[in-house]
Amino acid sequence: MSVPYNGVRDIKAAFLFSCFTGLRYSDLQRITLADLHKDTIGTYLDISMVKTKEKLKAYVPTVALSMVPERERTDNEPMFNLPKNDYANVCLRRWIESAQIDKTITFHLARHTAATLLLSSGLPLAVVSKQLGHLKISTTEIYAKIVDEAQVEAAKTMDNIIHV
After folding, report:
1. Which pairing describes strands 36-39 and 55-59: parallel, antiparallel, or unpaired?
2. Spatial distance between the Cα atoms of 91 and 41, rounded to a whole number of angstroms
3. Do 92 and 104 contact (CB within 8 A), yes or no?
4. What percent of the chain has pLDDT over 70?
5. Quick one: which of 17, 42, 44, 160 could link to 67 by a disulfide (CB 3.0–4.6 Å)?
6. Mean pLDDT across the chain
7. Are 42 and 63 in contact, with CB atoms under 8 Å apart?
8. What H or E segment, with its residue span, contains residue 59?
9. pLDDT tens-digit profile of 51-94?
10. Around Cβ 26, how many Cβ atoms within 10 Å?
C-alpha cells in the first residue's frame, strides 16, 4: 500500500528520529517496523546500512519511537514516507525558516546532532561510534573534537564571567 506524500509531517518526524538515533537519511527511507526488535534491555533496529552495506544493531530511545507517524502500514513498509533527499532538505529548510531559525539545516546535520549529544553526555567514543555505524572510530573522533572545542569555549565564557 502506497501512502501519498503529505508534506513535511514525515520529514519532521524523520529528522527528529535521526537526531535521536543518528541514522542516515538513506536508512530512514528504508527502515520498517519489521526492522525493530526487542530484547531484555530495549528496542533496537537491526538493519544493513545503505551506504556501507554493513549490519547495524542500534538501540532506539523511546523518544525516537514516539516520532514514528501513526498510520496503517504493513510491517514491511517504510516507517517514514519520504521523498528523495534533495527535496526532503528543501522541505526541511522551509520548516526551519517558518520557525524563524537562520541556519542551514540538512538531514545530515541530524546525524551530527546525535553524535554531539551522545558525546556531550559522556558516552564513550566507542559506544557512539557503534550507534552511528561508523566503520572506523577515527570517523567518530571528529565529533569528539567538536565537543572538546565547546568545552574550551565554556571555560573561556566562565573566565569572562568571573573576569580573571
Report:
1. unpaired
2. 36
3. no
4. 93
5. 17
6. 87
7. no
8. strand 55-59
9. 989 899 999 999 999 999 988 999 999 999 999 888 899 999 99
10. 13
H or E segment at 138? Answer: helix 137-162
**Measured distance CA(128)–CA(140) in Å, rounded:** 7
Q: What is the pLDDT of residues 4-41, one digit of tens each?
A: 445 578 999 999 999 999 999 999 999 999 999 999 99
H/E element holding 64? helix 62-65
The angle that helices 137-162 and 125-132 make with each other, rounded to 10 degrees, is 130
Please enumerate in sequence order all residues whose Cβ is within 8 A of that of 14, keeping only pairs 6 or more positions apart, or say none.
Answer: 25, 28, 67, 80, 82, 88, 107
The total number of residues shown for the chain amounts to 164
Question: Quick one: DSSP state of residue 51?
Answer: T
The one-character DSSP state at 69 is: P
User: Considering just the CA atoms, what is the radius of gyration of the chain in Å?
Assistant: 18
Query: End-to-end alpha-carbon separation of the chain, Å?
Result: 65
Q: Letter for the amino acid at 64?
A: A
Q: How many whole angstroms separate alpha carbon 37 and alpha carbon 8?
A: 27
Neighbours of 122 (CB within 10 A): 7
CA distance 145 to 164: 26
